[in-house]
Amino acid sequence: MVSGKPTWQQSMLRIKDPKVSVPHYEKIYGMTLLDKLDFPEMKFSLYFMASLPPGTKNVPKPGTDEAHKYLWSYSGTTLELTHNYGTEKEEGGVYHPGNGKGDGFGHIAFACDDVYKTCEELEKQGVSFKKKPNEGRMKGLAFAYDPDMYWVEIIKRGTPLEEKGYGTFTLKQTMLRVKDPKPTLEFYTKYFGMTCVSSKKFNDFSLYFLACAKPGATEADPDKPVLELTHNHGTESDESFKHNTGNEEGKKGFGHVGFLVDDVYAKCKELKDAGYKMKKEPDGGSMKGLAFALDPDGYWVEIIKRGGYDDKGTPYYLEKKSE
Question: Which of 31, 67, 71, 119 could be cross-linked to 60 through a Cys-Cys bond (beta carbons 3.0 to 4.6 Å apart)?
């Protein structure tokens, strides 16, 4: 267990059918299902998937107490897939994958050693593409579709890693568009322990790459992803401008990012004292001890107790019902 500063633990996407999406990420991108949490009373289930680093052994069986403890002490970042019961029976697409007018969420990304070769293999496996690596102006990267039509970017690793025991893919990015990078960078670096490891400036937009890394680092660890913040120049000067965050009616798809902290209540007090708003207080609702803050763009940021509150690793506790 890593204690101390917050660690980025999850990016959440809503999915139509877990019997389709979970095997897709397992078989296509080599991810491992770390845990499954079922909430039948609230009619949803959560699936937490990860690109495990080389040498990872003794991963507990999903759904067990051991898996719960493993998940809520996990030092890496998971892809959290949320299934609301009944959506699998609906016709057509259920969720909004982003990238429409005003949308904030852009994509997730996986890194590999050889984008061209890997995309050829993906195509043979039936994966469809928004952009193949030899298309468009930006060669050497691709965008595939997942079963819910979320964009999945395929990018080249900085250094080859398969020969060092890494899988073909590692989860490498979550991309969010931001109105003004200055307050957003401060939010994630000052209050959630992230480091801006690099940035790229173009004529019309800039990119900022944040990671759970030591201050001053210029790259993320090979098995750790980055939070890619995309700023389209000029939005910071438009008072009325606001991105869709993925939680609006008719626009639901991406849900939130989440961080593990040692003390949820203390972190929430720190954020409120700094002027940030909460979507859910730690004692709000029936699930006590976890919270959702709002970042400067209104994206939901879940705040979860590292290691949980009991010997099962449960990161919340339920309010006692009145007699």
Answer: 67
